Each structure stands twice: as C-alpha cells, then as structure tokens.
C-alpha cells in the first residue's frame, strides 16, 4: 500500500502558459531546472536556492530543448531553427549580476546552429544531434554532427530519413508534439554513447533495454552491432525506429496506437541479471497504453517472441513519466499513477508476461494534483520517496513528493513529527481537490450554458423550418419605406422590423442578414454587382420584442424596381466558444448556418411620391424659375422637337395602361382587408369606390412593405392622384367607374372600376401597372369566392382580346419584315407594347 499522501510544494510561478506553445520542464546542470511556458523565454531556476537564476530570450517560441551530456551546452529548437547556448555564459552573467536579480541573455542569430523550419523534437546521442520535422508530405529525421568547442558554430548534415504522412489532408493541422528517444543494448559497456546511457532511468530520452527484447524488436543485426536505436512517436500514432550504425538503415514502423503518441518509456518490472528494462511502454493522447515485452513462444516453437499488450486508461493525457515500477500521467484535471510491479512480485519468471500487465492496468490511483501539463523524469530519495518535478497550467513549478509504497504491516503508532506531516499533506491534498473542483465546476457551468444555448438554437431552427410551410410566421420581418432628403439628395430608405412572436429568446450569436436585389437592372449595372448585403448582429431579442434597422434601397432617379429584400437569420457557431476557442477550434471561426425568414418586395407604388396637383404645379414653377440649368434643358428640348419637324408643341408623348376591377369584388375584398384594422369599416359602403381603390393601392402593405408618408403626402381624397416616380417622371393615376352592357338584352350591366396610369415615361407606366396587378392579385386571394353571373361579359371580353391579339401579331410581323428601318420598327413595337398595356384587363 501507499503510506501517507502526496505533497505538492510550489517553487515558483512563471505566468500562464501560451495556448499554442509547448510547456517543458527539464533538469540540467547540478540543481538547475529549465522551464518553458511555450513562449520565447526559457527560465533557469536553481532548485537548491529556490530562486530564478536567469532568463534566455529566444527569437521564436520554444518547441523543445535538450541538455548536452557534459551539461555545458543547451540545444533549443524554435520555429526558425536550432540554437546552441553555452551555459557557462549564463553562469558568468548570473555571477556578475548577482545583486540585481536574474541574469538575462538574449539569444541572437550568432547562436544559430541549424536553420530548419518546423522542428518538432530534438535528441542528442553522443555528438550526433537528431531533429524530427514534419513537411507537407512526410516526416523528416535529420542527423547532424555537432561541432567541437574549437570549431565554428555550425553543424554538418550526416544523413536524412523520410517517412510518408498517413494522410496529408487530415494531418496538415496537427499540433501535437512528436516524441524522440534513444534505446540502447543492455550490455553495451564501451560505446561512445555509454555516458548518455549509464543510468537508464535518470534520463527520459535514453533507455537501456533488455538484450532479448532489444533483439526481438530491432533485429539480430542491431543487437550484434550494439547499435543505438532511435525510436519515434508520431502524432498519427505510429511508433517508428531507426538503427543508427547499420548500413542502409531506414525508418520502419514498429506499432501504431491510432492516436497521438504522448510518451515513450521503459519499466524495470522484468529486470534481468544483466540490467536493463524488460518492458517498453508507449502512451497515447486518448489513454491507450501499449506494453511491449518478451514472451515465451510456447513449448512447440520454443524461444521468445515480442508480446504487445494494449489497455486503456482515462484520458486525455497531457504528459507522463515512468519510474522503475510506476507510470505517472496527467489528464490536466488529475495526476494518476499506474503500478507496474505489484503482480510481478508475486509471480515467478516462468509464468506468462501478459498476466501482470493485465492486472496492473485495471485501475489507476489518483494523486489529487490538478493542472499538471509537463513532467520531468522521477527521482528517488534515500528513503525511497519518489519525487516528481512538474509544471502546472498556471505556470507554477512544483515538486510533488509521493509517499513510500509498502505492504501493510498492521497498525502502528506514528510519531508526532509524522502526524504533523500527514496533516500538512492532507491539507495540501484538500487544497488541490478544491482547486480541481473549482475548475471542474467552471467547466460544467460553461458546458451547461452552451447546451442551453444550443437547445434554443435547435428549437428556433425547427420553428423557422416548420413555419416556412405555413403563412403564419412567429419570427418574421416587415418593412416601411420612406423618402428622405440628405445633403440636397433624395433617397428611398427601408426600415426593416424583425418581430419575435415566438416563446424563444434570440441570444448572442444571431445576426439579421438582409440582401437587397433589384429585379430589373440596367445593362451597365448588370455588369457590376447589383445586390447589396447588410448584416445587423444583435445581443438579445426577447419574446414580444422587435428590432428595427434602416438601410438604403435606391437613390432618386434610380429605376431598378421592383426590389426584393431577402431577410434571414444567421447563427455563428463561433459564439458557442466565446473568446477561448480561437486556438482550440480555429476551423470553426467562419462556420455558420442561415435560416430564411421571408422576402419583402419594394415596387413602383411603394416608391411613388404622391403630391397634390397644386403642389406639383408649384414645384414645377419654382424649379423652372430658380434653376438656370432647368431653363437651358427646357430650351434645348423644345428646340430639338422643332428641328424634328414637330408642330411646335414641346409636350412629350404620353403612355397609358389600365386595369378594370368589378365593383362588387372590390367592395367585398376591401371590406375583408379593413375588417381588423379599420374600426369604421362600415363607412366603406358609402365611400366612392374609385377613391377607396386608389387609397388602398397607395397604402396597402403589399409584399410585406408599407408606405410611409412625409411632407405634403396626405390621404387620397379624389379619384385623381399625381406623383413622382422613382425615375423622377411625373405620373397620374385616374380611377373611374365604367358600365359594361352585356350583349344580350334584358341583362343588367356590370359596374367596374378602371384605374389608368398616365406618364411620359414608359418605364414608369410599366412599373406602376405591374405593381397594381400584383396588389389586385393579392386582393383576389383574400376575396370570397362567388359564382359569377356575367359569363357573357367574360366571353365578349375574351373575344375582343383574341381580336386584338390577331391585330397585334400582324403589326409585329410587319415590324420584323425586311425593308423596315430601325426607327419604324421601334415605333411599331412600341405601339404594340402600349396597346398590350392599355388593354383593360377585367377582373371579376
């Protein structure tokens, strides 16, 4: 069992870790400790005096570092290359500035040893420096010859080895760090690398492996030549090896964890007489553990084979280290321990090797230390107390002391000193548990908030999807158009109102997107982008509330009508993460989905500026008398008319279009339209049908858009309405009653209301005529269906329509015949077009 509880002693704090960096903690010269928080700085901390000795300032974020075997040099890998720092310079600076705080040493380009991009891991084997880099299509392992002290600061390339990526498209954004270690033959005594491997368990990058297991894994040739073997753990899960001294060696795959490799180590649970570890351990990011050791092949085959045992422990794993009998790993929220020798102590060497590994990996022991993101190799005190040097997520360097693991010998009375220490350890453990509970509580609260918001988003999405099939929309938009004048320029603006009639709250992350698209663009405008997009993010829209936004639709003189206004709600997935997901989920920054609301239409009637006849006359008079440019333009136009052979009149040609509606249909439909909004709807019967129709045409919210009145725009009081079209043309709307006598005697006549559009602009006449037909079409959809008794009127109207169509077809054929000049063709086609527009369409 384990006596007492683990104690965490805080040594120093170096600030929060850089999220995109690699945290590191390494023991170096004597009691010096090198700490990197993922930034451009390396902190040199002395464990003996518990203070900061110096700071190394690198030109780029630190990715990995190794200390030379003689502890005189420090090799640092950055994004720009590999730098070599003489630690004696730092010691000299520290002794010189002993009274002024820690020494600072800026590492410039003169310390640059190798120019290499994307170095993931470093390893020093004797005088050979190895780097592992990821390129676009492969992994690159490069061997360099380190310079002697008397030579220049430059490395020569010895050899390079390539290993293709599993899937470049998937692995292109992988940020996990690779693992690089060296494995030695157990009875190697006179190798040049023996100094590095003399203590196989004091260095995490150099492992001494049992001879039998070494031969089974790496081959007989590597074992006979006693060649050091480089072992690589890649982010794609592959374990690769390379014998250094064999001619023609290449990178080969040993195993695959199918998840990023976090740690590779060796355990001495099967230690033999010759020394060396009998088990190789690999740990994956998601908690997969692979134990590799020598197993007996069986009575039939004889000999030994390499056995691979896989188990899973709680993850994700941030870092790990291994001692002679235990594996320590951190999940970020807790530090855990796996015992590797409990079963082997009770079993003989003749039994199967997988039995102890299976029993040992069933349960992990929590050490109640949270936030650990980096670990150094464990050390053991004289009292067999294991000590771990760790770096927390908050940048805290701490020493974790683990109690001695012994078999239970019964209850005994502890001395007072040990009781006090146990109480202190208990209080420290309680503090760690409270800190971890606080972190977990914050994470749970954040996840609950995200789930609540996600539930709201899903409900709103279903609501808008279902309401798209019906006319009733609980979340919708409507518009209000109004002419305004700014800096002596008239423009038509649209106020779009978003109504939330649903029981859900539109919270942060939603954006009202509006796209304005003219349905009729000029050839010049069609070459450019006709549509305009507007985005209006908002923070919160509760049920029953509305949001008003304003946007320009068209300027005075623009005839690109009708205009469709498409409204939609856009939700950004990025809002779920807040500001903490910029580095965790960079691919989600532009991910969003759009939910359509409804489409509004602004036509010529919406953009018509209604004025009284007297106001129109005053406007024309004032403009003609006050603006010299208008006088000159009028004179030129009059002169052109005379030159063309006119009769002296300067009045332009007028164009007409009309539509007829049955009075009974109009009366019934308008009564239904005003039933909910007009409290005096009974007065409709006494009002003139012509005035009522014009008033409805100019005030109805057709297409989800209503008209706003300003200036001298008043209610319609006469059957004649004058106004200015968007293209500044003067138009006149005239409504009158027309009696249609049926051909058969004895039948009553049909009373209709005819609305005629008159203007000198063909575009204005066509646009207003089209807008009136749209409104009457919508009126018919709400009108009650009745059996029509005027079948003969309809038949006669169809007969006249067919006769006109035959006549117009002949005119079109004449216009397109050979011998016609372009001017004559245009006049004939314009006359036919005007006849089509002026032909009254009877709506019954």
UniProtKB/TrEMBL annotation:
Please provide one cellular component term from the Gene Ontology annotations of this protein.
Answer: Fanconi anaemia nuclear complex
Sorted alphabetically, which InterPro entries does this protein's record hold? Faap100 (IPR029251), Quino_amine_DH_bsu (IPR011044)
List the protein's name: FA core complex associated protein 100
The record's section on SUPFAM superfamilies has: YVTN repeat-like/Quinoprotein amine dehydrogenase
Residues passing through the membrane, by range: none
Which GO BP terms apply? interstrand cross-link repair
Highest taxon in the source lineage: Eukaryota
Q: Which PANTHER family match?
A: FANCONI ANEMIA CORE COMPLEX-ASSOCIATED PROTEIN 100
A Pfam family name for this chain?
Answer: FANCAA
């Amino acid at each position: 069992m384990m006596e007492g509880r683990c104690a965490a002693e805080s040594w120093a704090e170096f600030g929060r870790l850089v999220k995109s960096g690699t945290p590191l903690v390494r023991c170096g010269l004597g009691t010096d400790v090198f700490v990197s928080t993922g930034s451009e700085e390396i902190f040199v901390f002395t464990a003996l005096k518990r203070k900061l000795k110096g700071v190394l300032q690198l030109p780029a974020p630190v990715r990995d570092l190794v200390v030379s075997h003689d502890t005189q040099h420090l090799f640092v890998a950055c994004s720009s290359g590999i730098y070599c720092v003489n630690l004696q310079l730092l010691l000299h600076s520290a002794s010189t500035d002993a009274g002024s705080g820690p020494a600072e040493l800026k590492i410039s380009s003169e310390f640059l040893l190798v120019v290499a991009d994307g170095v993931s891991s470093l390893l020093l084997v004797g005088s050979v420096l190895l780097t592992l880099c990821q390129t676009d299509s492969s992994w690159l392992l490069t061997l360099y010859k380190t310079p002697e002290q008397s030579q220049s600061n430059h490395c020569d390339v010895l050899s390079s080895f390539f290993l293709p990526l599993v899937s470049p498209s998937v692995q292109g954004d992988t940020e996990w760090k690779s693992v690089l270690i060296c494995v030695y033959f157990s009875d190697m005594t006179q190798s040049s690398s023996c100094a590095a491997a003399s203590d196989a368990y004091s260095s995490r990058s150099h492992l001494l492996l049992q001879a039998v297991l070494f031969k089974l894994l790496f081959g007989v040739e590597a074992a006979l030549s006693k060649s050091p073997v480089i072992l690589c753990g890649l982010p794609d899960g592959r374990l690769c090896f390379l014998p250094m001294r064999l001619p023609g060696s290449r990178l080969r795959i040993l195993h695959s964890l199918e998840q990023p490799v976090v740690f590779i180590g060796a355990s001495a649970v099967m230690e033999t007489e010759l020394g060396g570890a009998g088990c190789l351990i690999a740990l994956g990011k998601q908690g997969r553990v692979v134990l590799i050791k020598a197993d007996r092949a069986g009575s039939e085959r004889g000999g030994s084979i390499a056995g691979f045992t896989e188990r899973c422990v709680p993850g994700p794993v941030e870092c790990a280290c291994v001692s002679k009998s235990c594996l320590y790993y951190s999940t970020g929220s807790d530090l855990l321990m796996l015992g590797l020798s409990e079963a082997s102590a009770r079993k003989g060497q003749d039994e199967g090797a997988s039995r102890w590994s299976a029993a040992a990996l069933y349960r992990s022991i929590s050490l109640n230390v949270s936030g650990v993101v980096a670990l150094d190799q464990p050390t053991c005190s004289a009292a067999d107390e294991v000590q771990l040097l760790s770096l927390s997520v908050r940048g805290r360097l701490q020493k974790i002391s683990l109690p001695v693991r012994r078999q239970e010998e019964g209850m005994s009375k502890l001395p007072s000193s040990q009781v006090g220490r146990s109480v202190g350890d208990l209080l420290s453990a309680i503090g760690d548990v409270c800190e971890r509970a606080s972190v977990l509580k914050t994470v749970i609260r954040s996840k609950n908030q995200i789930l609540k918001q996600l539930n709201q988003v899903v409900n709103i999405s279903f609501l808008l999807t279902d309401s798209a099939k019906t006319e009733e929309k609980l979340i919708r938009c409507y518009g209000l158009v109004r002419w305004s004048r700014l800096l002596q320029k008239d423009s038509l603006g649209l106020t779009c109102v978003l109504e939330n009639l649903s029981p859900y709250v539109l919270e942060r992350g939603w954006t009202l997107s509006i796209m304005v698209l003219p349905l009729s663009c000029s050839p010049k405008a069609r070459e450019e982008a006709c549509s305009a997009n507007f985005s209006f993010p908002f923070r919160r829209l509760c049920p029953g509330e509305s949001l008003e936004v304003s946007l320009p639709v068209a300027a005075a003189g623009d005839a690109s009508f009708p205009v469709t206004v498409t409204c939609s709600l856009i939700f950004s997935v990025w809002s779920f993460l807040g500001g903490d997901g910029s580095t965790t989920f960079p691919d989600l920054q532009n991910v969003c989905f759009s939910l359509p609301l409804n489409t509004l239409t602004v036509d010529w009637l919406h953009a018509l500026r209604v004025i009284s006849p007297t106001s129109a006359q005053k406007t024309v008079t004032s403009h003609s008398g006050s603006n010299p440019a208008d006088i000159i333009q009028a004179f030129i136009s009059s002169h052109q008319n005379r030159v063309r052979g006119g009769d002296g009149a300067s009045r332009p040609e007028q164009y007409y279009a009309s539509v007829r509606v049955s009075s009974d249909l109009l009366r019934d439909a308008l009564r239904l339209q005003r039933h909910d909004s007009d409290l005096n709807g009974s007065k409709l019967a006494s009002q003139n049908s012509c005035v009522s129709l014009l008033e409805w045409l100019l005030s109805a919210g057709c297409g989800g858009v209503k008209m706003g009145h300003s200036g001298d725009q008043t209610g319609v009081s006469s059957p004649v309405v004058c106004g200015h079209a968007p293209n500044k043309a003067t138009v006149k709307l005239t409504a009158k009653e027309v009696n249609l006598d049926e051909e058969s005697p004895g039948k009553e006549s049909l009373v209709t209301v005819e609305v005629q559009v008159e203007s000198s602009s063909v575009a204005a006449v066509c646009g207003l005529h089209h807008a009136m037909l749209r409104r009457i079409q919508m009126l018919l959809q709400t009108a009650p269906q009745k059996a029509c008794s005027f079948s003969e009127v309809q038949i006669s109207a169809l007969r006249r329509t067919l006769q006109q169509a035959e006549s117009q077809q002949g005119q079109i054929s004449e216009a397109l015949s050979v011998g016609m000049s372009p001017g004559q063709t245009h006049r004939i086609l314009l006359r036919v077009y005007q006849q089509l527009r002026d032909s009254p369409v009877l709506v019954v």
